[in-house]
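Lecture notes, unit on protein representations.

Consider one protein chain, 198 amino acids long.
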Amino acid sequence: MKRKFKTLEQGILMLRRRVRSIPISVSRILYTLSGKGRILIAIVLCFPFCQPIQIPGLSTPFGLAIALIGMRIAFGKKIWLPKKLLSKKISRRTFNKVTDKALWFVRKLKRWIYPRLFWLSSSPVMKVMNGLLICANGLFLALPLPIPFSNLAFAWSTFLIGLGMLENDGILIILGYAMFLIACTLLFLLGYGIKSIF
């Protein structure tokens, strides 16, 4: 049975109740969620990369999944993902570790998160823009970039935009856009520096 949630905290707690004793797959997350589920999926998938010490081997499949989900957020379609990605599983230990940190972080930020600049999360144009930016972040996450902390920047951009959309907080969305621009600027400067050397 699918259930609706209103905040990121509610969504994560609901997921934890539904997957107490088995590994969680992307397909099970899709089955469990409704409403703003697409945004929550992107947040859950990006959060392992929002910390300096990351889980190896997940950036490419999870990045591609985030990119496809971003496209679905942008154009309001039913989520479709390749079977290989749908069957990708996260162990209970890893899932609990990630969601523990996510809950801790969201609860710490709770006092500063509230609806503001509502149009940045509700406007049809901005929904498309936000979805496309999440898609771009996912593609960058999927690339094997030999740049320290590059995944960190694009993951945080996805997290902030997704959280802002869930909580109707336009300031968080703006911060997510700023994080994306900073990450792209660093990539450009690094690429320019390498080109000038050779």
